[in-house]
Specification:
mainly alpha, 2 helices
């Protein structure tokens, strides 16, 4: 699970729900921003395929 940045806790909330249902999950600490900062690969989505930001972060 991941959020955009460290200030968002939506991924942690979802991870807990999934753990409670016996799914194996991991949280990406620092969010996708940290992933990009470490120069790990990302794939950009087409503009019309991007989800709207409704996570409440």
């Amino acid at each position: 699970m991941y959020c955009w940045d460290v200030w968002c806790n939506t991924a942690a909330k979802v991870a807990k729900v999934l753990l409670d249902k016996d799914y194996k999950v991991k949280e990406l600490t620092g969010g996708i921003a940290a992933w990009q900062e470490m120069n790990f690969p990302v794939k950009e989505l087409a503009q019309d395929a991007r989800a709207t930001d409704n996570c409440g972060c």
